[in-house]
Request: fold
Amino acid sequence: SQQGEEDPQALSIQEGENATMNCSYKTSINNLQWYRQNSGRGLVHLILIRSNEREKHSGRLRVTLDTSKKSSSLLITASRAADTASYFCATDVPYDKVIFGPGTSLSVIP
Amino acid sequence: NAGVTQTPKFQVLKTGQSMTLQCAQDMNHNSMYWYRQDPGMGLRLIYYSASEGTTDKGEVPNGYNVSRLNKREFSLRLESAAPSQTSVYFCASRPWRGGSSYNEQFFGPGTRLTVL
Reply:
């Protein structure tokens, strides 16, 4: 079974709304990262949060990490049509192994 | 800087044929990775290399071999291709910051492989 699991699998929202995606994992981690992938193309790194951090912001992105619950969330505020993509969490487990979850497919409707 | 490059971009094989996917990075990164992505799914780790001269199995290593030729290059070999290996293959690299501190991965554009 996979280390990381995203929830929901698919999400459809109107432009301007906020989108929240969750990631749960099973084992202890060094870092957790979020990536975006547009329609089968390459992956783009969004944000990395270390195991000793609880919250991190980058532009319209907010990531939280709760190591006691082994979970993370990605919030995209004021979504745009260009945010339509698949979003993946990736857990960084000892030593230097990076495992991806199955992803959340986000559709932002103009 | 070219970043992470992968060759070829597309490949069609017949069952039982062999081939090697090439990956190179020019960012002096220590770690390199091979993933596969099946339609509608996430990336699954095949093999990774934490440094030159070392390789380790990931989640789905069966049917694959790897070589970390030098710090720049990390190749993935399919010895006897099977239809189940039809997928998009991504190579990635990332720098090591010391201790257990790593940063994000940088991905190549992918190789789309079809096995008939």
Notes: The first strand of chain A starts at residue 4 and ends at 7. Chain A touches chain B at residues 2, 30-31, 33, 40-43, 45, 48, 50, 88, 90, 92, 94-103 (CB under 8 Å). The mean pLDDT of chain A is 91.
